[in-house]
Amino acid sequence: LPFDSNAYRDLHLPGAGVGGHCLPKDPWLLKYGVDTYGKTDVPFDVIVKARMRNEMMPTHMVNLAKRGAKDAGIDFAKAKVAILGASFIENSEDTRNSPTETYVELLEKEGVKWVIHDPLVRQREFPYTVSKDLEETVKNTDIVVIFVMHKEYFDLKADWLKDKMKTPIIIDGRDVIQLEEFRKKGFTAYGVGKPS
């Protein structure tokens, strides 16, 4: 295999969750191997805790959206949420074990209406309807949730988005936007790993 000198690609920052084929299962395989065959005095609790933390991130994203709705004075159960990104990783169409899928399931349990935008995902590879039209997706929504850091989302402008939305609430799960800039434009804005 060729060496990829791009260290950023391997750096996992706090975000809305992880997916794909490897990260959801490899920590459990490593733990099993150490528990079964390992001869070490080093506890592997950190691996288990990290995996469990990643599995709960879609729930954390729902809680941030609920907080945003409460702060903006709207009923979360009656909100319409626009989810930006269906793939498990940025600038890819790959949806294997996408945390967006878990997020949608959690929204459905809450009775919340939702729409999804992804510029790359092909419909046949994802169990939920995905739009390629960003403007149509965010139109008349109450909450925009950024789940994937597709390059297209870095171009989001607060004024443009606020003009399209019913209620200006944004939850950034990937450190895509400048929260303070959106707050200055009247948004209720929260992000993973960011101070309120």
Automatic annotation (TrEMBL):
Residues 82-179 form the UDP-glucose/GDP-mannose dehydrogenase C-terminal domain. SMART domains: UDPG_MGDP_dh_C. InterPro entries: 6-PGluconate_DH-like_C_sf, UDP-Glc/GDP-Man, UDP-Glc/GDP-Man_DH_C, UDP-Glc/GDP-Man_DH_C_sf, UDP-Glc/GDP-Man_DH_dimer, UDP_ManNAc/GlcNAc_DH. GO terms for molecular function: NAD binding; oxidoreductase activity, acting on the CH-CH group of donors, NAD or NADP as acceptor; oxidoreductase activity, acting on the CH-OH group of donors, NAD or NADP as acceptor. GO terms for biological process: polysaccharide biosynthetic process. Belongs to the UDP-glucose/GDP-mannose dehydrogenase family. PANTHER family: UDP-N-ACETYL-D-MANNOSAMINE DEHYDROGENASE. This is UDP-glucose/GDP-mannose dehydrogenase C-terminal domain-containing protein. It comes from marine sediment metagenome.
